[in-house]
Amino acid sequence: MIKKKCKVAVAQYDISFFTHFDQFTSKLESWFQQAYTQNAQLLVFPEYGSMELASLFDETVYSDLSQQLYAMQGLYQAYQACYIELAKRYNCIVLASSFPVLLANKTFRNRANLFGPDGLIGYQDKLMMTRFENEQWIINPGDEIKVFSTDIGKLGVNICYDSEFPLYAQQQVSAGADLLLVPSCTDGLAGFHRVRIGSQARALENQCYVLHSPTVGRAEWSPAVDCNTGNASIYTPVDRGFPEDGILLQIKDNSAQWLNAEIDLAELSHIRQQGQVLNHRDWNKQHAAKLAS
């Protein structure tokens, strides 16, 4: 049975430095435990939070953009196993921090895995790459837009820059998604606000919830995620029964913590039919107007 009301935990996540893999597993379990005390059913971690694992290698590796990507592949299975075990133990759905995955064709993808109590539900690869990913890190785009069916409804994932392009989210919502998860990793306020504005626009256009999870803090040792800026946020439609600014909750400082809330997916069906505006219904009407010659 689909649960219309859902308690969610959105991570504002710091990048740590580890000397042993057990330190990572302990940190992650602590995050799960904190979410569990709030009865969270859905946990959302940010983009590239996994890059803290590069610290497990020596400095010649973790200080090199290319070497760290190849070295991390040896940790990918253990990283997945950790999330799988914790999702089962705490009986929750979790969007894991995205991981740079090396494919059989020798190209990398920025992959966000969705896990549940029974294991892997599926994954979404980032679709639109930033200049840094394209020009310096050489991470390639995915080519499939996915929607995941879960016990709390259908979910879509827009990884960071993807949230700034409306057709991805619109296709996911058209396929039944009421909840969009936006993991991000941005180094400055401008980057955070680009993702925030994009995410809020997606919530407005599609009359849906958007959960935005960023990385925060400094990791001077890392050339990839050295500076991290953002505020965990939950965005909503801007209409009756929802906040007038479309922000249900947002953390105001830059410390590592969960943003916890209960959301009601049934409210979306009502607002899409009885709202002051009907953006979700009216989306296709915009195609009728043609550019004047």
Largest sheet: 15 strands, mixed
Query: What is the number of E strands?
Result: 15
Q: What is the gyration radius calculated from CA atoms? A: 19 Å
- So what's the overall shape? globular
Explain what you see.
The protein has a 15-stranded mixed sheet that branches. The protein contains 9 helices and 15 strands. With 293 residues, the chain is α/β, with parallel strands linked by helices. Helix 6 runs parallel beside helix 7 (189-206).
List keywords for this structure.
9 helices; 15 strands; 293 residues
Note the topology.
Layout: E1 5-14, H1 21-37, E2 42-44, H2 59-62, H3 65-72, H4 76-89, E3 93-95, E4 99-102, E5 108-116, E6 119-125, H5 131-137, E7 139-140, E8 148-150, E9 153-157, H6 166-174, E10 179-184, H7 189-206, E11 209-218, E12 227-228, E13 233-235, E14 247-250, E15 257-264, H8 266-274, H9 279-282
Parallel strand pairs: 1-2, 1-11, 2-3, 5-7, 9-10, 10-11
Antiparallel strand pairs: 1-15, 3-5, 4-5, 5-6, 8-9, 11-12, 11-13, 13-14
Helix pairs in contact: 1-4, 6-7
Give a summary of the structure in a few sentences.
This protein has 293 residues and is of the alpha/beta class. It has nine helices and 15 strands.
